[in-house]
Each structure stands twice: as structure tokens, then as C-alpha cells.
Amino acid sequence: MIININYEDCRGIDCLDCLDICPMNVFDTVDDVLIIKKLDNCCGCQVCVDVCPNNAISIEY
């Protein structure tokens, strides 16, 4: 599984809806930029994809 973050569309520290809602704590921030910290924790629920207001996150299986 691959989680893609389109950084041109991601608002990073100004949004973080995905970080807040992810039940598996996959995301984190470094220097105000969203990162994938624990990819192995991802269960593929796509809640992050659904909640992103800018469609900046996608998941490939």
C-alpha cells in the first residue's frame, strides 16, 4: 500500500484534518509539513482521503 500526499494541494499545518481523524496514527508533522510517519500502521480505511478538503491524499493498493 502506498499513501500519496500531493504537497501542492496539501495545506499542511493549516489543516491537518487527516492527522486528527486517522485512527491508526499514520501521520505526523515535521517543520509544519505533513508526513507519513507510520505507514505500517495504515489499515487502508481511507478516512484520510475522505476528510481531506483539497483531495491531497490518495491511497494505492
Automatic annotation (TrEMBL):
<dbReference type="InterPro" id="IPR017900">
    <property type="entry name" value="4Fe4S_Fe_S_CS"/>
</dbReference>
<keyword id="KW-0479">Metal-binding</keyword>
<dbReference type="GO" id="GO:0051539">
    <property type="term" value="F:4 iron, 4 sulfur cluster binding"/>
</dbReference>
<keyword id="KW-0677">Repeat</keyword>
<keyword id="KW-0004">4Fe-4S</keyword>
<dbReference type="InterPro" id="IPR050572">
    <property type="entry name" value="Fe-S_Ferredoxin"/>
</dbReference>
<dbReference type="GO" id="GO:0016491">
    <property type="term" value="F:oxidoreductase activity"/>
</dbReference>
<feature type="domain" description="4Fe-4S ferredoxin-type">
    <location>
        <begin position="1"/>
        <end position="31"/>
    </location>
</feature>
<keyword id="KW-0411">Iron-sulfur</keyword>
<keyword id="KW-0408">Iron</keyword>
<dbReference type="InterPro" id="IPR017896">
    <property type="entry name" value="4Fe4S_Fe-S-bd"/>
</dbReference>
<dbReference type="GO" id="GO:0046872">
    <property type="term" value="F:metal ion binding"/>
</dbReference>
<protein>
    <submittedName>
        <fullName>Ferredoxin</fullName>
    </submittedName>
</protein>
<keyword id="KW-0813">Transport</keyword>
<feature type="domain" description="4Fe-4S ferredoxin-type">
    <location>
        <begin position="32"/>
        <end position="61"/>
    </location>
</feature>
<dbReference type="Pfam" id="PF13187">
    <property type="entry name" value="Fer4_9"/>
</dbReference>
<keyword id="KW-0249">Electron transport</keyword>
